[in-house]
Amino acid sequence: NMPEINVTPLGAGQDVGRSCILVSIGGKNIMLDCGMHMGYNDDRRFPDFSYITQNGRLTDFLDCVIISHFHLDHCGALPYMSEMVGYDGPIYMTHPTKAICPILLEDFRKITVDKKGETNFFTSQMIKDCMKKVVPLNLHQTVQVDDELEIKAYYAGHVLGAAMVHIKVGSESVVYTVSVNKYAKSHISAWIDKCRPDILISESTYATTIRDSKRCRERDFLKKVHETIERGGKVLIPVFALGRAQELCILLETFWERMNLKAPIYFSTGLTEKANHYYKLFITWTNQKIRKTFVQRNMFEFKHIKAFDRSYADNPGPMVVFATPGMLHAGQSLQIFKKWAGNEKNMVIMPGYCVQGTIGHKILNGQRKLEMEGRATLDVKLQVEYMSFSAHADAKGIMQLIRMAEPRNMLLVHGEAVKMEFLKGKIEQEFSIDCYMPANGETATVTTNPSVPVDISLNLLKREMALGGPLPDPKKPRTMHGTLIMKENSLKLVSSEQALKELGLNEHQLRFTCRVQLQDPHSDPDTLHRIYTHLKSVLKGYTIQHLPDGTVMVESIVIKVSSSAEDTNAKVLLLSWSYQGGEYFFTALCIVKRLMYQ
Amino acid sequence: SGQESAVLSPAKKLRLSKPSKSAALHVDLCKASSSTDALQYLLTFSRKPVEAESVEGVVRILLEHYYKETDSSVRLKIASLLGLLSKTPGFSPDCIVDDAINTLSSEKSHQVLAQLLDSLLVIGSQLPESPAVRLRLIEVAYKNLSDSSFGVRTKCLQLLGCLGLLEAPLGKDTAMRDVQSIISDYFGDQDPRVRTAALKAMLQLHERGMKIHQIIYDQACRLLSDDYEQVRSAAVQMVWVLSQLYPESIVPIPSSNEEIRLVDDAFGKISHMVSDGSWMVRVQAAKTLGSMLQVSPHFLEQTLDKKLMSDLRRKRTAHERAKELFASGEFSSGRKWADDAPKEKLDTNTVNLIASGACGAFVHGLEDEMFEVRNAAVEALCQLARSSPSFAEKCLDFLVDMFNDEIEEVRLQSIHVLRQISTHITLREDQLDTVLAVLEDSSRDIREALHELLCFTNVSTKECIQLALLELLKNLNKYPTDRSSVWKCLKFLGSRHPTLVLPLVPELLSTHPYFDTPEPDMDDPAYIAVLVLVFNAATSCPTMPALFSDHTFRHYAYLRDSLSHLVPPLRLPGRKQVYGLDSVDCGSGSGSVESAQLFLQQSLNRVSTIQNLEAAGAPELLDLTIRDLQRLGELQTELAGAADFCATFLRCQLLLMKALQEKLWNISVPLILKQNITVTAAAQQVLDESYKLEFLYSGLENRQVATIHHVRLQAKALQLILAARTRHGLDSLISSCEKFLQDVESFQRLFLTELPHLQDSFVEKLLELLPRLSSCKPVEQVKILQTTLRQSGLLQLRLPEQIHRATATIIEPTGESDNPLRFTSGLVVALDIDATLEHVQDPQNSVKVQVLYPDGQSHVIHPKPADFRKPGPNRHRLITQVYLSHTAWTEPSQIEVRLLLAYSSSCSSRLGWTDAMDSLHPAEGTVEGTIPFSKHVKVFIMPKPARR
């Protein structure tokens, strides 16, 4: 019965969103991520926790929960699980995730409860209570959850605080990565030890994508902004509060600095300010460039970017404004858009995808006349640009990670089944390892072949080393003799004498005797002497003795000759050997036999 | 341990050596009551140097104590001292080799053992000439290679790498295996540190000239996938070395029947390492790629391969899209929704996800998260592109992309790289557009590098020229200080693309076929920029001047005069040549340089006919020649340095000649006071000029330096004679005579090899007379000197290949500004200084800024090393701020700023500087001084009344 690791996705199995994966390893149960699904408004938005237990609290069934990063599809169901279903165990996440997570959860709650009027949803207090259960992680810090289970976080990319987790019980281990290095410059930005886990669990959203260099896209973006500013136009960039907004801010801030530009850049207030504050705090979690400039100043202490005030929109002259929300469907970004839409000098840059029905989607599809509330129409004269920044970790990034970690098995989650299929094929082909892609509720089982540690006594080791030449050649295995003692879950290899002593046993000699019948006309002593001289001549380098009591000793083998009373020619050859001497015995026997049959 | 020493003591040889140091140490060590005490003594002892002659004694005392010592930390210290002591200069450690090796046999501690081996390595490298010692040490290394401690094994491998015999001992000892195969056994060691050491040892063997066997290649390749980064990094180096040794060998591709060249295989493997997990390895791999020039073009081009896909459909890269847009005639778009939409469906089998081999190595390298890797990749790209024009063409897009890197170093590096490969390439319009966008960068270094690049860039269309001009004018407007750099850039742009500029001329000069247009402002830097472009294009486009309007011709004449380095001579129809100068310049080609060179040589030959310094007519001839040379230097810029050098040298000779010719030497002392002053001044001037000759010109050979020193010696002799005549006192005379003789001796020592060339010279005669000179009285010495000096001949000057005069031009401040710099007296004001330096060696140490205050005070300021940039070969740029401060200042007045070249000549400087460093006093005869080598620039400064 080999040990197994079971992985069961409760969400994100051959699906995108609602990440929640159960892992049971070495008798421990771990939940990786606890996310929500953006596409549903009913029960389906949260993972099905009844899979774990029908009634009662989850605490008894889970040893810990680990959250990889702050995106809602990875942490959105956390208060529901811990407060409403019931879980009191530890929840692990990195420091930045712990800081930003509650902001997003609160925002999510507000939209669901205050705007959509849902009841039976988690409350602000629940978010707070939930966050109290969080244990923060540092990068590369090994945290002992209990005596056997340990986890270690690695840097996973440029979503602030995103982490890969290495989970280890005994010699079995699992690595979970979300590879969300969305804003990474390269395919490699996440780094992990060559830890050779039993399973590497990875997201595969962009399994069928290999993306272009980020530099080209950035350059295009900056060029467009710059040109508009130069001809005195205003630029509106609708964004969502977290992640990309900060990325673009830094990009513009640096560009302004580099090009010595003077036009003001504004950032709409509210949620973003709070988020910027956290980015400011967790500077060490950001990329090399930001870290490097930090020596001089904090990159998030923007020099050129100021907070936006409603009245600024009417100011003359060029300016750049970041405003929420990102799809121009409501709020400040829409208000500004209405004001600026009529001037062909202005520009709006949509940095992300827009859902159908939003104004963002309409203008991107070239609509130049928009119907607003109250039958008013809006002529869109300003330029509309689309800037694709959706550069997620692509197939290459995942392959890179596999190369780095060298897992024994691969498991894909958080992606569409068709795309996973492709990546699965590639992984199996390139690395010849098994790749799994369980659906929700389906369990993937991997049998492990854990190495069993054995303590070896130093004396024995030294003795064996002394026997076999200078240093053991690391390329060649060598056999050694010893006694394996299994005692209270520990294994020990000691010399047989010590084993006897430890176990309080007496040593027993085990001797085997073999009778060989043969015909020989000579007298007994003559026969024995013949045997003796022959063995002496054949077996050089062995100790062969003719003892006065009428026996011949070859090493530990005793040879005796006796003849039966009836037939003096019929001789019986007695060979006796201890079990250690077995290897010599057959040699001796063959020689003697050959001699007799000559 | 007492027993041990008793056993070993017969082996020790007793030698008597000076007891001083060793005795003291012995006493100290005997006094030591505990190991800690002993360690303390040793630590204090190791801080002081030991004289070479007492090293051996000290070592013996140490070893004696070593055997007695039970504490391993003390033994460790002693072991390390063995190594330190054997490095003592002047000490040959062969006498302690045996004893040092003997210590190994009884040592139990692995740490001490490792340290002993380390010391043996030091001893071994001190004795490179002794094969017997080497053999013994190698034997020791072999013996200890099987030690169980990684430290010992590492040291053994190091020893083998540094001392291993290059030729295997032939049949002498079959048990002694080939050193390479022994080291390669440890490629598979269980400890990564030992594996690294083994690779390093092998590399060391290679560096020492041993040919590494090809079998190592496979083993090294296997180590490329080691778990530890230091092993992988060393393995990359190893693979590279082998690829350079056996580039054309054929190796099989695993799991196929195909075979490829070894260098291609290695290139592929190292390319793979560009996406390694450790950035150190990535840097190493990227750097290494650059030096693999023998790689097949097919493999090379794969490094730039990138296939994009989206949802399994092929996607065009931004580069491809830009190229297509350019081909279709549409420029700058991206306004369309989803113009990067995926195209055809891909066959899943052909998609290569993990970059195998060289595939996309540079694409990864250039997009790496760490700028160190990106920089290394850019550098490698440059090296490869320089040797392959087709590759240069292909990597253009990638390099241009790097102009927008987020780290300035990378941007700068890629601009430099593009300049270096620019002979191979022509920029497309869209590429040029990206390049030009960088002109607005606020970093001056970036802009200047870009100007430099534009000077060498080829463009394809007239729109490109227009675009470049437009952007450069924008640049000029935004950063007016870039003026000269922008002008220079346009000069080259014009002369490179005359046919592209031609159709633009009417528009550029805003001429109109029927109407007269208003005359542009001649002082407008932008207008000058346009004119520079046009005039330079006109040199090789004779039809262009027909398009000029009248004022253009006038402006030409003006600019030709005021900015002659930017505006070339033009043959203008129906116009007289404005300058006679032009006629010389017009024909300026290689022919005229040759003729000028000939003229220079002839002048020198003519001068060399002068027999000695008293020959009749010699001063006139010298005078004439000096004038000729000065003029030549002005006309032929290529020879300016040489001509100037010769002229200065001849002027020295002339001055000496005049000084000696004076009748004064026959007149009695009281009457000659006046002449004396002129002669003293002349001697001083010759001395000063001689320093200028030595330090202001680059490209001098030892022979010229000898000649210069000779002149200096003559001047010193003259000074001595003058001093003797004024008779200040016998004591001072004696000391000056002695000093002079020392100078002569040091001259002899320094220029021993040059003495044969100095026949019939002052110094040769002097050396002949040296025995007499050093024995006679000072007064007599002076007399001898006087006659020798007067009789000695003129030294013939032989010109070196290339000789350049160091020059400095202060660009900023211009000295033209009427706006005074305001400051509060007593406080500090910063003055920006921008200067170009040409042909200055080691400017960080030699160039100083001098500020002269109106009251005659002067300050010398040393700019920071970081203030110097190197925009081109033999050219430096100094951009710095000097802080001015003065307490008593009430009226606005001018200060003067100039640059100085500092020099320091010491007799020992050419012998090796270590000796000079050791002695506490600067070597005698050191002369330190400064040579002003730029014009004065005046800055108007106005004090503000101090606030109360």
From TrEMBL, chain A:
Domain Beta-Casp, chain residue ranges per copy: 245-363
UniProt keyword terms in alphabetical order: Cytoplasm, Hydrolase, Metal-binding, Nucleus, Zinc
Molecular function GO labels: hydrolase activity; metal ion binding; RNA endonuclease activity
Domain Metallo-beta-lactamase: 17-210
Primary localization: cytoplasm
Location in or out of the cell: Cytoplasm; Nucleus
Requisite cofactors: Zn(2+)
Organism: Amphiprion ocellaris (Clown anemonefish)
A GO biological-process term: snRNA processing
Gene3D superfamilies: 3.40.50.10890, Ribonuclease Z/Hydroxyacylglutathione hydrolase-like (3.60.15.10)
Record family assignment: Belongs to the metallo-beta-lactamase superfamily. RNA-metabolizing metallo-beta-lactamase-like family. INTS11 subfamily.
Protein name: Integrator complex subunit 11
One of the record's GO cellular component terms: cytoplasm
InterPro entries, A to Z: Beta_Casp, INTS11-like_MBL-fold, IntS11_C, MBL, Metallo-B-lactamas, RibonucZ/Hydroxyglut_hydro, RMMBL
A matching Pfam family: Lactamase_B_6
CDD domains: INTS11-like_MBL-fold (cd16291)
Automatic annotation (TrEMBL), chain B:
InterPro entries the record matches: ARM-like, ARM-type_fold, INTS4_8HBD, INTS4_C
Residues covered by the INTS4 8 helical bundle domain: 598-800
Biological process terms in GO annotation: snRNA processing
Gene3D superfamilies: Leucine-rich Repeat Variant
Keyword field: Cytoplasm, Nucleus, Repeat
Main location: cytoplasm
Entry GO terms, CC: cytoplasm; integrator complex
Compartment(s) of residence: Cytoplasm; Nucleus
Record flagged with keyword Transferase: no
Residue ranges of every copy of the Integrator complex subunit 4/Protein SIEL C-terminal Ig-like domain listed in the record: 809-945
Family per record: Belongs to the Integrator subunit 4 family.
Name by which UniProt lists this protein: Integrator complex subunit 4
Species in which this protein is naturally found: Amphiprion ocellaris
